[in-house]
């Protein structure tokens, strides 16, 4: 019975983590470029009371084992990288990725981070930056006198400046892809960092080498489905409740044992 108490406690802790992950998904339902996560579980070690094949008599052996599990643990929080809805904004500096890949940005520490949030702006020098002020890799600089900016599906950035009817080529946006993008380390602010699990970033032009293409004037919304998250929330709550009932049942059995005379 004491074992049942400890086992049920691991179930409660696991479901608490599940609810924490679900709560974070719901909280970021309106965060552009956000990718939802899912808690995954694995059972703990087993206590073997009798091994399979153990002798039960002179010429007989047990066909099966007597094993008692000791609970559950959180094995991983898997990031789901499905495409989020693309919303048209009409802002020429908003860019979304249709398909796989990430934008590379330079952090203040000098490290490279990756994001799916393409809501870009211009800083005082005319460089494309994120809403946090991180400079887009490649340092695309838009002339301050530019009348319009165009970003093609292949990442080519051009601008119309006064006195020149022909578009001025400003450079090309690059897309980074990974062998295992789910292995990227989350930094917050919709930023990710390369890790040993993700593999090395492969940087190339949009639409090439498996990278997605770009769509100007739109942003990618969160891929969180509120209905699915609410169902998962209810399921997790019920699983937590069932584990508390196991603890209550074990406690009642201990109480009855304590009153034996």
- Helices, by number, come to 2
Task: Indicate how many domains the architecture comprises.
Answer: 2
Give the averaged pLDDT, no decimals. Answer: 91
User: Strand tally, please?
Assistant: 20
Shape: elongated
Q: What summary fits the major beta sheet?
A: 5 strands, antiparallel
CA radius of gyration is 27 Å
Structural class: alpha+beta
What is the end-to-end distance?
19 Å
Helix and strand element order: HEEEEEEEEEEEEEEEEEEEEH
Q: What oligomeric arrangement do these chains adopt? A: single chain
Can you describe this structure in just a few lines?
With 261 residues, the chain is α+β, with helices and mostly antiparallel strands. It has two domains: 2-81 and 224-258, no CATH class; 86-220, no CATH class.
Topology:
Elements: H1 2-27, E1 37-43, E2 46-50, E3 66-69, E4 72-79, E5 86-88, E6 95-98, E7 103-106, E8 112-115, E9 121-122, E10 128-129, E11 135-136, E12 148-151, E13 156-160, E14 168-172, E15 175-177, E16 185-188, E17 191-193, E18 202-204, E19 213-216, E20 218-220, H2 226-258
Antiparallel strand pairs: 1-4, 2-3, 5-20, 6-19, 7-8, 7-11, 8-17, 9-10, 12-13, 13-14, 15-18, 16-17
Top keywords for this entry?
single chain, 261 residues, 2 domains, 30% strand, elongated
